[in-house]
Amino acid sequence: MTERISVAGSGAVYPVSALCAGVALWWALTALGDIPPFLLPAPDAVVARLAGNPELYLVNALFTLEKVVYGGAIGIGAGIALAAFVAYVPWFRRAVYPYLVTVRVLPKLAIAPLLLIYLGTGMTTAIVFVALITFFPLVLNTAAGLDRTPTAHHDLLRSVDAGPIERILYVDVPYAIPDIFAGLKQSVTLAVVGAVVAEWVVADNGLGFLILMGSENVRPDVMLAALVVLLLVGLALYGIVVLVQRRVHERLGLETLD
Amino acid sequence: MIDLESVGVAFDEFTAVADVDLGIDDGEFVTVVGPSGCGKTTVLRAIGGLQEPTTGRVTIDGRSPSVAQEAGDVGFVFQQHTLLPWKSALENVVFLRKMADKPPDREGARALLETMGLDGFEDARPAALSGGMKQRVAIARAIHLGADVLLMDEPFGELDEITRDELGVEIRSLWRRERKTIVFVTHSVPEAVFLGDRCVVMCDRPGRIEATFDIDLPGPRDTESLGSGAFQEQVAAVRRTLHESYD
Known about the structure:
Keywords (chain B): ATP-binding, Nucleotide-binding, Transport
Organism (chain B): Natronococcus amylolyticus DSM 10524
CATH architecture of the largest domain in chain B: 3-Layer(aba) Sandwich
Largest interface: A-B, 19 and 26 residues
GO molecular function (chain B): ATP binding; ATP hydrolysis activity
Radius of gyration of chain B: 18 Å
InterPro entries (chain B): AAA+_ATPase, ABC_transporter-like_ATP-bd, ABC_transporter-like_CS, ABC_transporter_ATP-bind, P-loop_NTPase
Pfam families (chain B): ABC_tran (PF00005)
Oligomer: heterodimer
């Protein structure tokens, strides 16, 4: 056990050092360089901004998180549901799957202004946009995962007259788990991107809105402070998915590759 | 009693199996041997209800294969072990019985794994087992299902020869103990002769039964009998039939 901790510790030395070096470089640039603080504030100024008015950042982080959670839940749920249709309804797969693959090349961000016209400047637009952007990775990964069961397993279940529900629950879904998590990891990252973009377009509240306001008022310290919080939100969400993935993979005896 | 009455299977234009007549008594050990593509697997799948015959009919104890499936009377062992990678050996054995809606019997499954040389590996996942052990678990799973009929589709196809011989001896003694009806498909002539009391030889284009041999070997069958003169003669006879059909 001690050995594992020391290994983990030595593994963290490099990234932590790199982070410190990065912040030091940033600080040196502001202290020694000829950059005016209203263009690039020093790291301690950003920390001071955060510490000076934590409520502002916390409240807006919660607004952003709300969009991520509601939109993400809808997008992920819809993505898995549609993937099940793609995997198990042959005519539906043939009709829809080519478009699901094609739509991948469409930059989903470009849809946000359109949603603004259709849904207005409320929370709905942001939630729908986040749902839309998280939907695609889930649908494609899950559909591929549900296809992964070797055909001989299906023969085995047919030979004892087991029904499709049993087959899906006990065999297909566990086989699809790694792909579902791959989709979730992409989705959770995209959800934060989607929420910020929605906040730019809708301009109501949230960390994205704070960044937008900071930009209009030329306040890089506010923008950087909001970015730091945004980074923490994104990392926390991604971390939750990775933790759940580890637990599930452990139970299923699968290798966690990352 | 398994009964095939002029069974034919066609896929579009291609005739996989034509006009197969075969009767297998309860408790019989029948091997089906032939080259790749002769339709032996198709015949096995037709018996087990995984392939609907285009013509003719199959019955197991007078019932259609799908009715036998429903009753959990068809135990398949495939070339791939088809164990679920996230379940232990024991859980895999129990799983199929559960899927067949039969009451669970963990202790029975544990005892069975023990008699099959998997003592101490009950809780191991398939990834921790060798190829031979995985196939043992798959065989145990089919037996634990409680089916009267075991259908084996080249179950030793991916194993090395030494493991094949070992498992062959074991299958024979298992069959003597359990008194199941076994239909065993293989493309290995020695394996077919060693295992079967009756050996059905199939040929292709179209897939059909060329000949049937009653295999009579003196004494219990073990690795020693593989070297006996009687065994060699039977193997030679089956080979001759297979090659003659291509002349």
